[in-house]
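User: Can you predict the 3D structure for this chain?
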Amino acid sequence: MGTYDAPLEDMTFVIDELLDAQKILGDLPAFADYGVGPELTSALLEEAGKLAGGVIAPTLRAGDEQGATCADGKVTTSPGYDDAIRQLAEGGWVGIASDPEYGGQGLPELYATASHEMWNGANIALALHAMLGIGAALAIHAHASDELKATYLEKMHSGEWAGTMNLTEAGAGSDLGVMKSRAVPEGDHYRVYGQKIFITWGDHEANDNIIHLVLAKLPDAPEGSRGISLFLVPKYLVNADGSLGERNDVYPVSVEHKLGIHGSPTCVMAFGDNDGAIGYLVGEPNQGLAAMFTMMNEARLKVGLQGLSASDAAYQKALVWARERVQGGTEIINHPDVKRMLMLMKSIAEAMRAFAYTEGLTMDLAHHAPADQRPAHQARLDLMIPIIKAWLSELGNELTSLGVQVHGGMGYVEETGAAQYYRDVRIAAIYEGTNGIQAQDLVGRKIARDGGAAMESALDEVALTLDQLAASSEMGLNRIGVQLRAAVADLQATTQWVVANYTENRDAVLTAAFDYLMQCGYVMGGWHLARSALVAQEKLDAGSDREFYRQKVVTAGFYASNVLPRAQSHAAIVSEGTDLGDYPMDWF
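Assistant: Here is the predicted structure, written as structure tokens:
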């Protein structure tokens, strides 16, 4: 109950051995003074793990049982949350990868990715606070005026001030073009009016100020999504000397009663019910969606991490239970079906971690590699973000459900805590763009738009791994190579099908989009575990007797035999090209 042990051994392996962060990032000018390498990795992850396990995890159960409440225009947070948020800020963790010019730590995103895995593994509801704040700061950093950046960023990076994003309205979910929120010019600022729903950490007293990023329309805005602008609306106005001024006209109306993440105040927010909320334009007029997507791309990586984090935490709890619970005269971990479930949880979680961390590294390269290399890294990141967000969150649902199953009947009883991971992670497949939207983005904006070039480039990298597997003297690695090669061939074929059919048979492609995305996820997960197995086998061949390396090779083999075949079934669905346009609505 409320315990969490960060999987430091595997996290360290991925960062230092699989990705070789020291070699890839250490010499980049942005990180040259930080000493990127095993010593930094060990020190940073150990301290983050202590904070996750000792400070954040103890809030997990209390937040579930005593969720955030709203009364009289004020939100009250769950027991222990304010103190944990304060300690995160005081440790410099909120702005760990943010621009040091504005008070950030300036470390690689790869380390921020690992840190966020731990915060979410300890308590997703609380970890959302930091995720939203740093995401809002990213959008301000990329698009706001120098004056706004100077006023707000340092205190957001320090965690002294929080941040939110306000997109959704009751009549405008994913279709933002029909939103009704409006902004009226008034001198050097605007008056913002409207109501937003589903605003994560929309109000609270854990921070001195909350910086809301709000999508709204100007009076002369074009119709649809082309007429949306982005505004910075602080909870408290900021005086010229940086001190806090009067309360702005923005208040919480209520908090939602949700399936999970009860400790996260998901608010209905009212802007301008009295005199209008004072706001400041971020970026150019009518370009709000582009500015907000700076925040959302980063957020989608972190939402994918929630699938990983909940899965790993559920695995930890299930493993303890399986070792202690006796049935049939033995601990249930000795039962073949229980061992099967645990291996599914372990192997898929390790595949998720390697995948997510790899693209955290890609984000660093997209921002900090030599300028002529950045476009290729950005194209790779753009391709992988929807896959990471959707594949990891979908499997988060499956693996946390398996965690309940391992507990048997006791898993369905709230007092064991197994069900909370299942309930908390369910939102990850929905927010920051549903997984269906991620799939449509993948096939339309990423695959069809460039003719499959970015995917072809990624599969060229996989081909190098296939050659290494085939050349290995270890039969286990050879088998992984054979299974992965077949899966890659299927993915090449379905990618070509998407490209060939997107224009003329778009409905069929969009119907198959989710299966195509899941196929991509399983193949990429298999690739990263195969790479991990090669690294581990190299260590063993060099004389290491470390059990972890033997586990890594066997885990990769289990994934190749028991998980990777799922990609084949998704490929078969894609290749059929079903067009549901032939199925009338009145048949449902």
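The first helix runs from residue 8 to 18. The chain has a mean pLDDT of 96.
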